[in-house]
Structure formats: structure tokens, C-alpha cells
Amino acid sequence: MIRSFRALLIRDLKLAARVGGSGMMGLIFFLTIVTLMPFALGPDLNLLSRIGPAILWIAALLATLIGLDRLFQADQEDGSLDLLRLAPVPMEVVVLAKVAAHWLVTGLPLAIAAPFLGLLVALTPDAMLAMVVTLLVGTPALTFIGAIGAALTASLRRGGLILAILVLPFMIPTLIFGVSAANAALGGTVPFATPFLILVALSLIAAVVGTVGAAAALRSGES
Amino acid sequence: MIRDLANPTRFMSLSRALLPWVSGLAALLLVAGLYMVWFVAPADYQQGETVKIMYIHVPAAWLSLFFYSLMAVSALGTLVWRHPLADVSQKAAAPIGAAFTLICLVTGSLWGKPMWGTYWQWDARLTSMLVMFLIYAGILALWRAIEEPNRAARAVSILTLVGAVNVPIVKFSVDWWNTLHQPASVFRLGGPTIHPSMLVPLLVMAVAFTLVGVALHLSGMRTEILRRRVRTLTILEAERLDAQAA
């Protein structure tokens, strides 16, 4: 089971590296959203640095949606998903491997890029560190929640928009505690650990519910 | 009883017999309830006449949770027990629950303006109810997106069960977060805290709303069964014409 997990992970990473696409697109989208914010809010650096963590979190959340619709759809279209269904590995392992690969390609770069984008909204070094840590811990939750939506809409021709409508409400708790942990690191009455530990818990819960839910959705999707 | 109803034909005949009675009773109770609300129930000493919005708002909120729970149980019925009518019940419940959620949000907002001085506040109960509405909207969108009824039902079931985490959050939000929305005053340990002169009309309205919901749900299920029969017959007819042409 470990071997098939590793094989699938490497396959998806290779596909992402050679076909290219969603990882880079997500990063560019992330940058674009952060760039748009000062145009809407005005270039007041004090204001931007105060709401910077919120801007970065919203942008990261939207950026994880990019490419999520292709998570299972590409395999559904070329038939590999049918082969995976027939394979002796449980569907949960397949989902876990695919989600892990997807997160490495799309979620991890967001966390790494966060400090550089933080410069644009005048974050302090402390806040940048907090952004990296919270995104590192929080984006897996977003990817796992998104995986349920991706599995449900895998066979739909125009699944992208409906996917966003389905999964965004479920991402609200992650957003709340991600932003409040990042803000707590900037000072304030709440200690950093309280919202941060809840964020960790949300990621762990999402990992379980997302894997089981997406696997069930993929199994039920076979026609 | 549940197993007997697995036969759609039996369900159709039973629901045809039941529906006029449920609808009639719902109409009767609704008239009685509205009469009590307008002419019998006293105005609140603090809220004045605006308290009467509550008689719509509270039952709508209860029913929005009730229909979500019904959908969640039906989703289990679809996925686990493979009950043939579970997905019909699920599909019929979604728009009704969404409508009650919307009624609850709108009436609450109208009541909030004179009482709290604002149409909207990012309070835990209000926000979780809004999320509830978004989840209902997502479920309705997914029903429409997948054409084949059985596959749509299984996909929606998974989404419904994942979304069920929000039901306890809505219910207990006023206890967990001490915010603007007033805490529960009817179903609580130690008995209701509202005066019988207001409790009785509220309960009558709640029963009336429930019956309206049940009547809508029954007729929604009947429509859905007929729609599926039409779909099957259309496919059969198309296949027959296809065979004829070939």
C-alpha cells in the first residue's frame, strides 16, 4: 500500500512538472489578487499592513481553487481513474496520494511565496513568519476540503464554478482561524497557540473527512 | 412502514390519500395561528408590535434545521440502506429547506433593524445561518449539475452529510458564543422562559409551519416520482424510435 502510494505520488508530481500548469498558475493568481487589493483599498501602507494577513489568506484560499477542478477530472477523462478503481489499493490511498501531490504543487508554493507577497502589503518580519507557518499548516485543510468537491464534480464538464460554490462555505473555519492565528502573532490579547492549535486540528479533521469523503464520492461516481 | 413505502406506487397512493388532509390541516392551523398572532398575543413591553415577526422567524428557523436533518437522514438512506425513495425525499427537501432558511434570514433582518439598529450583524447565529443557506444553495446547484438522478443523489448525499456539521453549530451557536442573538427560550433545560400567552401562538405557528413543510415535501416527492417516470418513458420511447429507424 505504501508502494502504490509512493508510485501515485511520484506519477502525479511528474505529471505536474512535465505538463505544468496549475502550480504556477496558482502562484500567479495569488500575486494578482494581492496586487488588486491596494487598488481597491488605496495604497495606505498602515492599513495594508494591518489587514495584510487577511488579504494574503483570502488570496491563498482563492488560489487553492485554481486547478482543483482538474484534480480528479483529468484522470476521469483519460480513463486512469477507472483503472485506479479496479486496482487492489483502497480508494482512500489513491485520494491521499493525489491530494498530497496536489498540495505539494499548489499549496506549498503559496506558503513559501507568502513572505515575498507580504512585502507588497508591508508586513513586519514577525507577521511574515506567522503567515508562512499558518499557510503551511492551513492550506492542507483547504486542499482536502477541496478534494471532496473535486471528486463530486469530477465527471462534470463545467465543474470549476460549481466546485467553488460547493467548497467555499466549508473553508470558512480554516479562514477564520488562519487569519486569527496570523493576527495573534502580531500581538493582541489572544496568545498565538490558541487559534493556531485549532487550525492544526482543522487540518487533521479535514484530512480524515476529505480523504474518506472524496473516496466515497469517486466510488459512487463510477457509471 | 418505511420498508412498505419502498414501493413508489404504494407511496403514490398513500400520499395521494394523505396530502389533502395534511394540506387542509396546515391551512387551518395557519389561519388559527395567524389569528392568535395578530389578535390574541400581547405586544412585548420592550419590542412592541415587532415581536410578531418572531412568530414567523422562529418556526422558519426550526424548519430550516428540520429539513436539513431530514436531508441528512435521507442521505444516509440513499448511501447506506439504498432506500429507493430516500433520494426523492432528499431532492424534494432541498428547495423547501432553502426557502425556510431564506425566510428566517429575511424576517430576522427586518426585525433586527428596529430592535438592534442594523439589518445585519456578523453574529455567530446569523453567520452560521447564512453559511447554512450557502450550503443549501450548493446542494441545489449540485442537483442541477448532474443529470442522471441516481448519480446526482449519491453525490449530493456525500455533500449533505459533510454539510451536516453545520446543524449543531447553528443550534448551539448562541450558547457557545455569547453574542447579539438571544439564547434559546423555548427548548431549554428548566423549561421555556417565555410567557404562555406568547408560547401558545408560537407553538401553533410552529406546528402549522411544520405541516406546510410536510405538505410541500409530500407533493414535491410526488412531482419528483412523476418526473422520473416521464424521464424513463421518454428514454424508452427514444430507444423504440431508434430501433425502428435502424
TrEMBL record, chain A:
GO MF terms held by the record: heme transmembrane transporter activity
Membrane topology: Multi-pass membrane protein
Stored Pfam families: CcmB
Sorted UniProt keywords: Cell inner membrane, Cell membrane, Cytochrome c-type biogenesis, Membrane, Transmembrane, Transmembrane helix, Transport
Subcellular location: Cell inner membrane
Transmembrane segments: 21-42, 54-72, 93-123, 129-154, 161-186, 192-218
InterPro entries: Cyt_c_biogenesis_CcmB (IPR003544), Cyt_c_CcmB_bac (IPR026031)
Keyword Translocase among record annotations: no
GO cellular component, one term: plasma membrane
Domain of life: Bacteria
Record-level GO BP terms: cytochrome c biosynthetic process; cytochrome complex assembly
NCBIfam families: ccmB
Family of the protein in this entry: Belongs to the CcmB/CycW/HelB family.
Cited PANTHER family: CYTOCHROME C BIOGENESIS B-RELATED, HEME EXPORTER PROTEIN B
Functional description taken from the UniProt entry: Required for the export of heme to the periplasm for the biogenesis of c-type cytochromes.
Name of this chain's protein: Heme exporter protein B
Taxon lineage: Bacteria, Pseudomonadati, Pseudomonadota, Alphaproteobacteria, Hyphomicrobiales
From TrEMBL, chain B:
Keyword Membrane set for record: yes
InterPro entries reported for this sequence: Cyt_c_assembly, Cyt_c_biogenesis_CcmC, Cyt_c_biogenesis_CcsA/CcmC
Biological processes, Gene Ontology terms: cytochrome complex assembly
Transmembrane domains' residue ranges: 21-41, 61-81, 93-112, 124-143, 155-174, 194-219
Pfam families: Cytochrom_C_asm
Keywords: Cell inner membrane, Cell membrane, Cytochrome c-type biogenesis, Membrane, Transmembrane, Transmembrane helix, Transport
GO molecular function list: heme binding; heme transmembrane transporter activity
Protein location: Cell inner membrane; Membrane
Domain Cytochrome c assembly protein, residue spans: 4-181
GO CC annotation: plasma membrane
Membrane topology: Multi-pass membrane protein
Role, per record: Required for the export of heme to the periplasm for the biogenesis of c-type cytochromes.
Family: Belongs to the CcmC/CycZ/HelC family.
Protein name, UniProt field: Heme exporter protein C
Organism of origin: Microvirga alba
Gene transcribed to yield this protein: ccmC
